[in-house]
Queue: 3 jobs
Job 1
Amino acid sequence: MNEAVTNLWSVPLLIIIPILTAILVNLLYNKTKAIRAISVGASIAVLAIAVLSPYGFHWFAGHPAVNSDGTYTFTASVFSWKLSLEYYYGPLQQILIGLMSLLLLFTVLIATKSLSKNLGPYLAIIFLTYVSAAAVLMTNDFYHLWIAVELGSLLVAGLVASSGTAYAQKAALKYTFFSALAGSGLAISLGLILGLTGYVNITDAIHFLMSNDLGGMYAVLYVAFAFLTLAWVYAGGLVPVHPLKSDVYRSAFPHGTVLLQTQSKLMLVAIGIVMLRLFGSLPFATDVMLVISVLTMIFGVVMALIQTDLRWILAYLIVSHSGLVTVGLSLGTYRGIVGGIFQALNDVIYMSILLICCEMLLYFGKGSTSIKFGGGVAKKSPWLAAFAVLGAMAASGIPPFNGFQSELILLQAALEQGLPEVAAVILMVSVSTFVALFRAIYSIFLKPEPEKTSESYVGRFKMPDVVFISLVVLLSISLILGVYPQLAFSFINESALKVVLVPWVP
Amino acid sequence: MIDAFMTVAYLMVVGVTIGAIAALLQKDLLRAAYITGAESIALAFLFHALLAPDLGLTQAIVGTVLMPGIIILAILKTRRHEESD
Amino acid sequence: MIEISLQLLGFIAATVLVVVGIAGMLYLDNLIKKLIAFTLLSDGVNLALVSLGYVQGGIVPILEPDASIFEFPNEAALIFGPGIVLTNIVIGVSTTAILAALIVVLYRRYGSLKASKVLKGDRE
């Protein structure tokens, strides 16, 4: 493990480059070529940094604890007091942020291809959404966590509203109104933890909670947990707010939804890990999280089954698969956490494939993705149909693809904990995903086209090269992870072990 | 001296409470926006009394100028009176 | 007059603001009223956080040049809550701005500020 002792150069760059790009692109406003060059360059730069960066810390204030012999202490075995705002970049951050940077690149390419009006502000919002998720993943202090979640929720509203339909604006308004509750709850939770422990750094706070007897103040910890759960539920669109979040997924542009769902799943992972580290030892804490996740899976999948529009089906499936991510985390065991994080990774990949296919359908089909509409796309664009079918197979957990591997781990983790009913729900999600997706895909792609509605899909479809390349890359990642899941495990294992064994280490 | 201070604090708490409820009961939205500004002044004083004078200053500026300003702008772009039906 | 501390007074006012804010956001029909209720809610949260840091008989947590550095930690009010509040005020302003923009856009579309009319759950 090559952890840098000094402040890491790469971590602030991962935050600053997208922010600067957002400002620049926003100023350029409508100069499409310049915007395209700058934003593609920035996303490639961010991807390169995420891949090349070494692991280590970055301190915004404060410093690592120094021993009497002049060495630094932030090893796993020794408690260290840092008293600082700190970012940590480790293997988990590397794989998740790397994947998100790749998706950012594809999103930017597709957005610059398919949009022409108000491109600058739209791309600025996309870049800032990336920043919010990256900051939540890397941060090891409550302050940045809170700010990034608040920023993220405002940006979701912006990204949704910029798609311009009345339904999108209503969804954005409702989501922002609810952000008042969730953001205030997160602020109060943060205030309570700060008041209880006195440390803004998560490592220091856990150290304090472990080494001091809180006595009667333990109840305050429960209140803090409740408010943090509210923020978690809100950021990821779990059960009480799933109607709001599915509206949001549905009404943004599909390529915007690629980044939206990535953001919310990474936030689920990051905040979930913080909750496990802080409150994992509280009785009932993981049970509450487990109940929320199971309800999310059931509601999402049931709603997905009764929809008649591919975009709605995908929106509800994303919600229900968020439940799959959190069910792994909330089991609280090593295998569960590995399964949850791996599921988040796979989910982001195969849902992006399906969403990009959906974008192409909108592009060709003049705005409709309803089941009752058209048919016979497979004849006009065989590649698109192939990608959609393969993506749907990955999503419903069919063996050669990545969805199968993570769902297998989740099933094993649930059975290990003696929870066969949770395992049954996970299986149900997998099967219902298959049914819901193939119902839509059959009637849109595979069914022969009715003769009369010739104006619906005209002629032969030619996919833009950018879309084709991104679909090929995503699908090959999906296949590689499905055949060699060890590639991802080498990144995830260490973080999951740390959460279980040494929760104070980021 | 302390008593006078506490009395003012009581008054400000009452002011915040009445201001909050009055702002929501107004039919005239513009007047409701002004009342939130007045409520913010009472809140700024409470911040000051609770040993956070820096926040009191910030709240006084933001709460009396910026927030009502945004709300008034929104009202000017839409309509001033609540719809009756 | 009943003797209660300033901290408790702050918490009472904060509770009133939060309850009035949430009730207003839930039950009022006018979108601008909902917006005003949101600002009240965020004010209430700020007041609760500031009250959290109050120390009875304490001093303002700013180190004067001639103050004793040893007495300061014992006397000064806690800065944890207030440290967050400054950011929360800014977040409140930006959220208000976004909400106001969305309300204006929706008003242009529907010609009404009634939430029951504008936010009807129809799907395109």
Note: The CA atoms of residues 65 and 78 of chain B lie 20 Å apart.
Job 2
Amino acid sequence: MKKKAIIIVTIIVLSIVCSLTLTSCATIISPEKAFDILQKGVQEALDATYYFYDEVDNRNEKESINRKVNIIGKVDGENNAMQDENKEYIDYKASLYEKTSSKKAPTHVLDYKVGLPDKSEEGAVPYLIKRDATDKSKDQDRIEIKTRKEMTTKQFVESEFFADYSLYSKVKDLKMLTLDDIDLDATWKQSFSKEGASFTGQMYLVSMKFVIKPEFFEEHCPDSTLKGDMIHIEVVDGKLNNIIVYQYVSDGSITTFDEVYRFSTVYRGPKVQIPKLSDLEDEKDGYTIVESII
Amino acid sequence: MNFKQTTKKAKNKAIYFGNHISSHWNRPAPGHEAPYREVAAYSVGGMGKEMIMYMVYMLALNASTIFLGSTIGIKPMHIQTMYTIVTILNVGFVFVRAFLFDNMRLKMGKFRPMIMLSAIPLVAIIGVMFFLEFDVMTYKEKLTAVIAFVICVEFFKPILLEAFVGIGHVITSNSNERTNIITIYSIVYSLAPTLTNFIVPLFSEFTGGLTSIDTYRYVILPMALFGVVLSLVTVLGTKERIVTSRNYVQKVNVFKGIKEVYRNKYWWIINCAGWVAFLEGAANTLLLWMYVYGVQDMVEYSMVTTVLGMSATIAMVLTPILLKKVGNKNLLLLHNSMNIVLIVAMLFTFQIPYLFIFFLFFNLLFNYLALIYGPVIHGEMRDYQHYLSGKRMDGVFGPASSMINTPIIIATGYIIPIAYQSFGLTINYNILYDPSFRNQMFTVLLVMSIVGAVLNLVPFFFYDFPREMHVNVVRVNNLRAMIGDYSDDCLQPERIKRGVDDHREVMRINSIEHEDINDLRKQLRLLNADKTMAKEEKKNQSKRIYARIATAKNIAHKQKHTVLYLNEFHKFDIEINKIKLVLAHELCDKGIESFSGRDVLEMKESVAKAVGRYCADNCVVLTPKEKRSLNAQFRGVLRSHKKMNKVYDGNFKRMTMDKLNEAIAMPETNKEEEKARKIALKREGSIWSKYINITENYRDTKMLIKQKIAMDNFAEIEGMYEDSILSIEDGKQKSIIEEQERKAKVLADYEAAEKIRIEEMPLEKQEKYLIKKEKQNARKEQMQKMIEEAVATEKKSAEAKKQKKLEMEENNAKHIETFIDQTPPSDIKDDATDDSKGGETL
């Protein structure tokens, strides 16, 4: 009797837990509501002072690019960027990493870090360091050039060079997107089934999959990274989180529906560790002081 | 004891153990098979295995795996789907692995080559995987690569684990020695996780943290390669000692066994608790996330994990004490209730890392208690199964559990990934850097953990298997074994001693009369109500009454559980067993050949008549449950009859093990003979196995008659007790003398060889050598003296302990006798109301 009681109690409890979890599964939401959430998320991204993003671009068949950009500083208890008496962000640092892998050329890495090292002495000046490395190939040995230049994080972030890497440049196209630019009747074949536009909500996650009409790109942004046969966007807790672009890719006789572009962002990133100046002056470390890096 | 004495004692112990280990480094100790060199090789290899497994666990298929989730970016739901695929594939892999283990006849043995054949591919596969360019792959490419590698890893991983477990089983055939070896092995290999948990996060600080693939490439992979080197120490430094039994061991039908296991209440309780354990584990990943995404200081993390690792050592020391003090059920309840309390505390403190770690330390400490009490409880549950089904069937627990648990684990495994996904943790684990998101996630996971801990606690309220019950379960199993051996005429002195000792102990316990606990409680209440008595006197009297209550409770508790033994001992006094005996006599009295030739209808009629006659003569009315039990037994025997006629086509003949024994005894000096023996063994083994399977139900029924005869002749078995004691003592003396003779012979041989060597030396060298030798001998003598002193002290302390125990037992017995003689004090009026319903009255 007791044995049966145990089994019954456990099964009931398990079923309650399972059903509670399953009820939190995706529910369909209207495109209007989904778009409203998306636009708020995009606006928040455009306003972000600190952020981290990771981007993989496989659109070009011959090469693939991975970028990681991180801008970070001290925040208060409510997660707002803290400023000093001169209205400068405290512990303001940035990093930019770009890796280009190519079928025909050796892998190339660009790595920038800017800011003051942790626990640096009073009066120390922030600087930008750059590492430019090209892998070994048939024709040449591995090349690594390390350079540095005095520069503040603000100067780096506000520079023309960085403009193309900023979060703003990555999400600005989405800001222009309206519900009219979406082809709600379009379908695509994914794995074994045929799918169409979908807008779902699941507690903190809003997920949307749709096709953007070609006219949108023609009118607003011909070189947009969002260009593709289907786009999948995830907004988490009202913040833009992931953008994935799929495209039909033909490789001779086989056509596949592939992920060609992936962009993930968050408003806090990992620590940026700037090497101490004393380490950089060591000749063995190979850093040279230059007039211009970017 | 002062410091000097303690130091001397510790020194003595160290000398004693040091001498023991060094003298048996290459040559096994008396009564042992494996020298300490092999134990060391096995343990060091175990550390290597743990280092490899550290890397393998990086590919563990659960939603919180940092490598698969954060580094590569696989969705939690897809990780869980991979787990489902791998679990299903594993069903097939099990057979392939079983085939490999049983059929690869390599010269090195059965398990040792398997270490090489699994460790090297495992590290190679995962090493290649670490060097893939995941950061530029599409999601589909990543998913395909990961699943391919994970499948390969899941194939090889169990081979490595099974090989190490297998070596533990075959390094010696001596059961006690095996237990000691496995204990040493466990202690040594557990150093490896402590080391890796410290080193990896520490070095990861230079490679970009645990989310960076460089940590896997340049820290974890070299460590695993070192692990391969260490595991080769086991391959090269150990021997496999597989002993082929000359006696046939009865096979247990897997499906019948599984059916039997499902009757075991305690198996269900342990499994039910396991079904909900996944929820409790939801918060397991929090510390790692806290440091990877929050604190971002892997040096501190490595220190923290090392400190947290200490909780395991404390738990290992505490568990035996707690088990003894509170018993297994209370320990289970304590562990699971403390988990709830501590996880609740963690929920309110996770934003203050050090406070969170403080509570986590105690949470881990309580969880680690299960490392020791888990196997104890499983062992007791298996003994109970032996008692329930009358057969020892350890092998069927695995299939029984997987049949029930696998679908449940697969289904419930999706709950945590669904929770992750609902909160937005899909492919972008970097979202955990966001403190507001991380805090929400932590809250949810801790709440899930609390729910899991509460659910985990519920089944253990039904666990009622105290130590005394287990003692009696083992006594019943011993009694059955003794009765079985008596019936088969192969009773050994050790078996007689144990069986009769058990029987006498049960009878002694039952002969003790204890005081009425309710009366004693009444006395206590009246004493407390008495305001005239002096405070000191009152205190002393109540202390005495409490002691009497404790003694009475203890006796009552012991007597309560001896019922199991007494029921078994008097089982033929129960009507249903008497009727089963009538059935057995009716079917089996004329022998198995006659049984196989009987007509089914005639058998049915004759059994019905005999049972009916017995019931009428003894005015017995069978309950429906008894009828079902009787029918089941009869159907079982009929099944045997049907099989006999089907397989042997009316030509059934009783078989003996002679032919199988002949095959076992065949010579195997060359390859031809080896082959011939193998073929003969296979043929005869199969014939015998078939015979045993077909006649199983008949033999079970026949066993009832034999058991009855043996029980009736229990006095005869008791009569053999004194001779058995003498025989055991003789055996011990003989082995001591043999060991002494062996040692003397070795010494004499060595001295003779030494003498010849010295004589052959040039005179000058001889002198130098003799002086050196003299010095050596003096040192040796001094050392020997110290060793003898240490051994004598050890012996003395062991004897003192024994003496103390005996004195305590005597005092206890006197205590009980005094209480029995005592009458309640006359000055306490018996006018209190009895409110002790549900007390321990017998």
Note: Chain A touches chain B through 48 residues (CB under 8 Å).
Job 3
Amino acid sequence: MKIAFSTSGNDLNAPLDMRFGRAAKFLVYDTETQAFTLVDNTQNMSAAQGAGIQAAQNVAAAGAQAVVSGHCGPKAFRMLSTANIKVYTSNAATVAEALSQFQAGALTELTAANVDGHWA
Amino acid sequence: MIIAVASGKGGTGKTTVAANLARVRGDVTLLDCDVEEPNVHLFISGEPQGEPEVVSLLVPEVDESRCDGCAACSNFCAFKALAVLDKRVLVFAEMCHGCGGCARVCPQDAIREVPKRMGVVETMGADGVTVVQGRLDVGVAMAPPLVRAVKAHIPKTGDAILDAPPGTSCPVVATLRETDFVVLVTEPTPFGLNDLKLAVEVVRELGLPFGVVVNRADSSDDRVATYCREASIPILAEIPDDRRVAEAYSRGELMVDALPEYRSLFEQLYTDIVRLLQNPLIAGVARASCPCFMGGTPMPRGALQGPHC
């Protein structure tokens, strides 16, 4: 399966970005091939609104079945749920640490947004 | 004449200036465009005139039986109010600005627009001043459409004074558009100066003539005055840092009612605005007599050359 991690960097040692919608990019890791690709999300960093919605479209288009990030707001959660993408939160320092947490089954799946939206 | 009272910083005295100006002027419509927290009514109350007018925004509703998931709507929407995933459209109505573009571009005719309530406009009358205020519903985040609904009550003839929301964002721009003159209220503090500069950038971008009122003026900080002088911005009035003004305010009284000696300050302010609008040579105050504004219809920027262009 493919897992999308929010990050500001370019490899597994890069920091896990606590923000989902306004992360600079997503590292999409394929557990079968153990390879990853990077999905750019910078157009959302300065978006006036709707960053979470667009970011969810980006990870869905990348074929991810799971997202690991620090937080997930209501609109992004609704998008990801619709796309059948599971959302996990982690406070890991790096993508690699979050990945090992995920593979160890140490992350719990969100059943609702864990932060409020910025627009009510 | 339509005068808007605005400020970059909140709490500088916009409502104080707008309400006192309206009181000394009389026979004027005072519109509270700070629809997130209207407060003019605390100072000029009056008998409600009719029932509150409910204001709604038209937002998209998708007929899933007709939608084929082509994403024309979500590609068109600048505000991400529609998203398409797995050929299914999700509507985020709270993001919608009500432009109606999605319904127009839908090739399947699968979108219809339905009203979504966003707030009310209330009208009150008191001693010659008609107060019109917008009140956004709790939980609604988008003010500009309601600001425009308030401004629809600007009389075709006669004078109007608009109390703008604080800041420099969309609700402020929605308030200032199509006005004749902007009064920027500030205070002689570093915050007041910083946010005044931001507000000046906005009114200059909008091409509106404007001047500054310094509230709570004292002699301790002259940086606002220095900035205005260097930027050729007229200081129209200075309201002194007078404890009695604050006391009257805290009782919900108008300054000119509680302290009649301030009447002349606001009468002079009004007179000066009228005078400035007749004088195209005063820097920053040129639109009204610029050729591009002849006949009262703004022309596209650069269509004719004048001091405002």
Note: Helices of chain A lie at 51-61, 74-82, 95-103.
